[in-house]
Amino acid sequence: MITTTNPRTGATTDLDLLDTTTAEVDRLAERAAQAAPGLAALGREGRARALEAVADALEAAREELVRVADDETGLGEARLNGELSRAAFQFRLFAEALREGSYLEAAIDHAGDTPLGPGPDLRRMLLPLGPVAVFGASNFPFAFSVAGGDTASALASGCPVVIKAHDSHPLTSLKSAEAITAGLASAGAPEGTVALVFGQEAAGHLIAHPEIKAVGFTGSLSTGRILLDIINRREDPIPFYGELSSLNPLVVTPGAAAARGDEIAKGLFGSYTGSGGQLCTKPGLAFVPTGPEGDRIVETMQALTAEGGGHVLLNQRISQAFDTIADRLVSAGAPVAARGQVDGADGFVVPPVLLATQASDLSAELTEECFGPLIVVARYDGEKDLAAALELMPHSLTATVHAEDDEADTVASLSRLLEPLVGRLVFNGYPTGVRVSWAQHHGGPWPSTNSQHTSVGVTAIRRFLRPFVWQNAPESVLPEELHEGYSAIPRRIDGALVLPGSAR
Amino acid sequence: MITTTNPRTGATTDLDLLDTTTAEVDRLAERAAQAAPGLAALGREGRARALEAVADALEAAREELVRVADDETGLGEARLNGELSRAAFQFRLFAEALREGSYLEAAIDHAGDTPLGPGPDLRRMLLPLGPVAVFGASNFPFAFSVAGGDTASALASGCPVVIKAHDSHPLTSLKSAEAITAGLASAGAPEGTVALVFGQEAAGHLIAHPEIKAVGFTGSLSTGRILLDIINRREDPIPFYGELSSLNPLVVTPGAAAARGDEIAKGLFGSYTGSGGQLCTKPGLAFVPTGPEGDRIVETMQALTAEGGGHVLLNQRISQAFDTIADRLVSAGAPVAARGQVDGADGFVVPPVLLATQASDLSAELTEECFGPLIVVARYDGEKDLAAALELMPHSLTATVHAEDDEADTVASLSRLLEPLVGRLVFNGYPTGVRVSWAQHHGGPWPSTNSQHTSVGVTAIRRFLRPFVWQNAPESVLPEELHEGYSAIPRRIDGALVLPGSAR
Question: Which of A335, A433, A489, B388 is the most buried (most CB within 10 A)?
């Protein structure tokens, strides 16, 4: 029997659901494989309409989805409404990308003489990999879960999806899958295009299944490693797209501390406590200069933290890990500078926590990610001190620099130091509040993700596609996008990019 | 002491070379990491010039390189001259790709209102991953070895390369590395941009080295598996681009057999024996229809094979494996239909071998790849018989169909059956003789490669790049390709692809 837990109270409710059996996982994976040709045959326009139908279905179910998710996650209706809008937006953005069509990377080299002799006609395009396993994340019950970007990008690419529901929000997962399934059905997608499984055994069985061709996962490094080990034992290794761990260091320069210390202190407090600090891009370590202007930032953050109320965390495991890791960080040399208020004893509620240390005292132990409303502030004394500390930084999704216009040299040297460590470099803002758009990206060197991964932004679709070339093929077997006269999408023809409608 | 062996005679010569020590591997990997910023700083034009200088240096050394390679591989001067031209061409093609610039996938989303609220300015581009380990292949001493496509594409991307010399052609490897190093130096590339290592221990140590960020390998499935296991034990898994095994099935339809059986028999003989059958794209299994027109194809191939002279294989290991696997295929149910002539007993010389079986008798054992001049011809009786046999096909780089214009239904159903199995589908030609161009691709589902891999064609560069995003960054820290006014390369601006020189 699967249970759901209200993190505000800790109260559990039995659901009329069981863990998925391995036999059922087999059936769902095979059904997904059978659905693949039909999903591909919808074509770009058909799949774009299906994605829009999913977005509509999610929004039509908004009231129930947000209510159920709020009960299961404690994230609050405002945040959950925004997140559901983001999830729907992601499906619509991929519909736009399908219509635009350059994600196919269509290319034609006509037959002809080459410096190495006569060359055949070659036509290249990306094709869907096949069924994808997606793992729902605890912290985004919509936008990184059943209705999340992995699902949207996989469906856009033409890959059916079998989703492992996160055990923190089983009912939200079920209701999301129902909405998605209804949306897909209304647009003529084959049955089995999306399926949902519950339970750890089902998850392990799923990613070992021969019909599964890629895995998208957002979660902890330890669980990611377990999944990767299962994949490595497969006869055919498949791509594992894992988003696993990220500290997201943030640097405040002396100039920025002097010019807008208060604003930064407030922004940083909001960024480390928003959504209870349960964001992969939460800044977990902030470098603040020594001296009175840096002192003032820390004092403001202390005051805000001390006045801050408790945050409901997503589940007991996360709440307990928060306490454990906070204690570890304190023991490793970052004493508590401020701690917020927690009323009552129900549920998985923790206070915001501000720890303080010196940059010169940083160690590997002090750069451990703590999921939840906690930040370590490290005071640094000059650029050398800072540069030495940055050498200890683990790889992250993001790094952030707050600097003033007249600090160009500092900004240049910080950029050089931070670029190799991360996938996104933010200036004078906060890494949380990720914009979803064409140029966006969500990855970084291991263990934040693997370096080439991205689960946010249009290019996320690239993870689920493979190149294919037809040589001297009759037009009847070619996808229409590679027909000689087709001109509705950007294509590379004899080496030159040609836009839709361009004369050649 | 490293020795080199002449495969025509089996005679060995000691070289003034030792296996690279692990300490030296460490030094070379660290030197490569130190070279990376300088190589990146050359910029696209600087790297394009460096690649052209390498191409020039390889061609300037042509006479010596071909002579040394012929002594070490027995491939013959005509083939080796052509291969050296291909290797030089590959460097020049990547120079062209660098100047064209769309490989960077530059994208800009301007700050502004979005359906989800105000969005920051985002600028995305691909950056080099870092030092790459490349393994030279035995069968292409130039084009898939030290001077091969992996090296060219990695250098183009801005990644230094540490290359494991194949033990079948150590001197060719050394001379190639010298030419490349001289070419790079003349164009101002940093010292350590390319390095060469010898020996298995060095290879294992190299791919476990923390500074190595990706591995390119063309070779056997068994060696590939060993390398992958080493990579899986790293703290940070890195991409492994392995091209491992490929049967390359070829189908002759009844119409093609009737229309041009003789031509196909001759073409197929040339394709399976060219370069001694030591090509990853060699057709290893041909489906020929039953009946008199199919009989005639087989008879012509038998006659050509029986008259065919011996082929010098690259080394003793390959020669012995050829005999062993040929015996295994015969035992598994494909008796010898014809075998060519071998004069004398010196060196690693084998005859061309034609085995024959029925499509209905095919088994996993009969689809084993045999590296060398061997082909299995399977006779099939109608489309159902053929379709059932194709179900047993292992994944391959290529599949080939010979069919006539009036067989559209057959062609359509064969395409549907073959597409999931391969990366390239060839019509009325042969899979060998791979065109190097923008639309080309060299990959297929595991174990031919991993599905998303390609080591031939311009998109090979994508393997060694990672996405990076700057958010609200001052122009001073942005690469010039992301400056607001830059217009020399294709960029995606606010979702729309913009070509160089286009007005917006």
Answer: A489
